[in-house]
Amino acid sequence: MKNLSKTIVLLTSLGFGCAANAELRINGFANLVGGITSSDDTLYGYDDKISFSEDSLFAIQLSGDINDKMTATGQIVARGSEDYDPEFEWAYITYQATDNVSISAGRLRIPLFRYSSSLDVGYSYHWISPPQSVYDVTFNNLDGLRVDYSNYAGDWEYNIQLAAGTYENTTDVYKIEGRDTVALTAEAAYEFFKVRAVYGRAKTSIDVFGLEGAFAAFEQVLPTKLYNDLEAVDDTGVFLGLGLEYDTFDWFVSGEITSVDTEKSYIKEDIAYFLTAGLRIGKFTPSITYEVKESDDGVKFTDQISQLPAALQAQVIGVQAAFDDDEQAVTLGLRYDYATNVALKAEVTRYTDDLYENSDANLLRFAVNYIF
Amino acid sequence: MVNIMLKHTLKKLSLTAIILFGSASVFAEVVIVVHPSNSASIDAKSAQRIFLGKEKKFSTGKEAIPINQVAGTASRDAFDNGTLGRNSAQVSAYWSKLVFTGKGIPPKEVADDAAVIAIVSSNADAIGYVDSGAADASVKTIPLN
What we know:
The complex is a heterodimer.
Chain A: H1 2-13, E1 24-37, E2 57-65, E3 70-79, E4 85-96, E5 101-109, H2 132-135, E6 141-153, E7 156-170, E8 174-190, E9 193-208, H3 212-221, H4 224-230, E10 235-247, E11 251-262, E12 270-279, E13 284-295, H5 302-305, H6 310-320, E14 326-339, E15 342-353, E16 361-371
Antiparallel strand pairs in A: 1-2, 1-16, 2-3, 3-4, 4-5, 5-6, 6-7, 7-8, 8-9, 9-10, 10-11, 11-12, 12-13, 13-14, 14-15, 15-16
Chain B: H1 2-26, E1 30-34, H2 44-51, E2 65-69, H3 74-84, H4 88-99, E3 108-110, H5 113-120, E4 126-131, E5 140-143
Parallel strand pairs in B: 2-3, 2-4
Antiparallel strand pairs in B: 1-4, 1-5
Protein name (chain A): Porin domain-containing protein
Signal peptide (chain A): 1-22
GO molecular function, one term (chain A): porin activity
């Protein structure tokens, strides 16, 4: 009920309520995804009992023209992983300044990845969900501004996006905040070829609830400089990304590589990438995807740590390992275009973890993607 | 000698005919239609840009209003596969990306060739495509090849 009234207030403030003469466009999309792992395994929230709630979602998008230059857009998403509690994930107003430049303000998606903008619209890509090693970042939506510039020269098409603002994301495990976030994306396409590069930066604070005790203890015993270096409060986090794609519509191959690094914190740099290839044979799109996520092996701040008593050294090194990753996955997938607004998909994923061997798992998922 | 050459040419001709009619039987041949007063220069490339929402204006600077046909008509299949270079499901996936990022609104869809001609003949900004046999004098036709 609280959510509903919040929704109405937001809609009204976006101009849906008052623009009686404007055309209101209603679109939506839904992903119904079921999955089950091999016995006693868990992966991406699934276990060996079939579940439909991890990746399923229903969303409605409302948009209306305020005048011939301005459009208001709101997207309400109900995720199975959050008990289908509807939430306003996007709400923004776009001003079409010229034919090539648009400015959007409100809550919008940070353009970090090739598929960031349509991340939740399963129908728009060949997977059931984009490779999680790369796409599963803790921040996706931004409260702020985005400027989009697009143009073409000869057979080259290009666009540049600049986003700025703040983000916040709280889960059961952590709370992350990014102030002064800036993301610059450049994309160029020539016939079947597409290249994309991203640079992002934010003053990042990460509070992992399970580590609060450890950090409270560190604050008492560690030298101030080392403590400040370790804690993840207001530290500059940098995101780098590069994507390449070749898509002839009969077949495609693409990949993305990203780096996420908050240098002055206990969290190590994470490098992730994926490669995917597929064929489009009539209504069928078989594909294969290989993905990797690895964190830097080195221990940070070794000069300072070496001066600590041995027992304390082990704890400081231990906390740096909290988010270590060394994992790979291979996914075989099949998409079937049932209609121009319905796709059926099936995927098998083999996941291997080189740090925690008993995390290895096989996952079978199937999905219905619908758009209207 | 002449006989052999003639035979050879005939063989070549019939082969060409098979290729031509063979490809024609897969998809209908469509032409672009605009209002008779529209003087913009339009080719397959600019039609593609307009129907994919990448271009919102004609070369004359006037607003372009693309009129699409519903999925499944012979003209739509021919236009999607021939001019847009992808099947209707892929076109729909392309638009879903734009719609749900607030970057575009897909063209209005109408039922058939006749409905396209009815709109285009009465709207100076409209652009559509129809089977080459369906166009009449109320619209200006532009071949795609």
